[in-house]
Amino acid sequence: MMAGAGASREMDRSKTALVLVAVAVFMTAVHYLGLLPEVLFRVPESLVPPFAIWLDAIFNFVKDDLGLLKLTRTLTEGLEWLLDVTANLLFGKRRWPNLGPIPWTSVAAVGAVIGYYLGGWRMAALAGGTFIWTALIGQWKIAMETMSVLVVAAPLAFMIGLTLGILAWRKPWVNRALKPILSVLQTLPFFTYLLPAVIFFKVGPTAGAVATTIYAIPPMILMTTLGLQKVSPEMVEAGEMSGCTRWQLLRHVYLPSARTEILVGVNQVIMLCLAMVVLTAFIGMPGLGAKLLAMMGSFKLGRSFEIGVTIVLLAVTLDRMSKAWVVKQPEHFEKGTPWWKRHLMLLLGVGLFVLFIGVSQFIEVASTIGRKQNFSQGKEIDTLIKGFLNIDAVKATTGFLRAFLNVQVLIPFRNFMLSIPTPAFILLIVAFALWLGGKRQAVLAAIFFSLVAFSGWWDRSVITLYSVISAVALAMLIGLPLGIWAARTERWSNRILLVCDTAQTFPSFVYLIPAIMLFGITDIAVIFSILIFAMVPLTRYTIEGLRSVPEEMTEAADMSGATRMQKLWKVQLPLALPTMAVGFNQAIMFAFFMVIIAAFIGTQDLGQELQRTLAGTDLGKNFVLGICVSLMALTFDLTILKWASDQKKALGLGD
User: Fold this and answer.
1) Which CATH architecture has domain 146-298?
2) Residue 253: what are its φ and ψ, rounded to 5°?
3) Does the pTM of the predicted model rise above 0.85?
4) Quick check: 21 pLDDT over 90?
5) Span of the secretion signal (predicted)?
């Protein structure tokens, strides 16, 4: 009976969704005939509430009247002191403690020792090699400018996230209050973090550290709460029976038991910090991001490529080392083991650190590598890249893609989306949410997109959505077949998953480099950069979904005489689809994130407007634009995840 009722509800939802689509199509057709009143095509400016003015008034009241600016500027002094210390130690800023800069050889040696401790010789080679590359290629100072902020922001994000995660676990009302806030924070475009940081914490490293910290907090909260909730009652009972206080239970039972989830949170914090600290170049933060921005702006592709490689190496190194920390179990020694044996790696690290400091006092190149001593090949790489792009076959291919995709596909699709009346567009989104997610998702979609319509930025929002849909659709055409093909064998699955894991560690800025190289500053470069960023989760979750199909199901299909194609379409894909839906969802979220970064290339969407707000103090407009992006992203996020959850339950795969 319940299955029948569920099928009936699904049928009703589908019928209602079809009616909504029919109404939207009818309204669009009436508009094409020139019979639709202008008020039903776009919300008249007279009806658009002045959200930006209201928000500016609230921000000014909080900033000036309540004294938040004075408080943040006081906090800035402490944060500046911390940043001055790390800057002095890492790249030689002349501030207290006046000990720096630490020689690059010492940093590389310590990195190699930590890598060996966490993952053996391969990890040691990766960590040490990354720092050696950075120094030899002449990028040590700018890399350390980035790292000086990262080593402050990541621990701050960890401590704040851990504290709030424990509070959310202890107090259900805190958890309920934080969930919607975290959902919005995770979908807000990064530009929305930057302007408040500039206003309240000054331009440069301080604002960069604040924006980076806030951006990286949400996953730490979520993973801490998840880990503490999963602690088994038996472990807690054992702690209580041994007479532990609440604090002792937390310290000695809950936190050690949730160690894996907490360290996964640490990994995500580090990666988000690195991604954001590169993007803070837009607010005057020096380092790798600022140099990359300058090189790309002047179309110096060779130097951009070198800096991109450095950013990728740092990202991969930090990712691999933090993941190795997650799986590494604490070491235990027999009673009476000498202190030096228990801390051999620590002593080795300290010894090498001191040794290379001593060496650098006598050998200058062991301390710093000057401009004329480095091995940068920026000009040569630039010549090679431009030579490659001038090959007739390459020029013909990129020229054809530019002409065909722009003229025949992308521009007509964008114009079509802009031609749809606002109420009809909202009905189409609501129909999608109703059909896929249900009534609650449909109501939320109606509310969210209506707010976007009344924001005064509807056309810019539609262009943003056009970029996202176009890029994800093209990514599906490449990523899904690649994932299906790779899932056929264990060897190719592991290879492609390794590529996906590595690609997911790349800071998003890096994806602009191949797009600009191939297509210059054009619309197709925007779509291409989003496409390659969004293709990674699509491919990854397609492989994982197909590999997670129970063997007995595929064996039953084989025994019934199904061909490989029949088995794929009738058995494997239906069972893998809930997992693949997570990939679709992540691809859309990645696309919304990347479309804002692609504003650097030059777009006409919300990202371009957000970038313009950084030049002033228009905080109200900045938040309105950011919330528009967040509301659109949340609509798809909630709808697709609800569908995936429902499908898993229907297939008996668990939630």
Assistant:
1) Orthogonal Bundle (1.10)
2) -120, -60
3) yes
4) yes
5) none
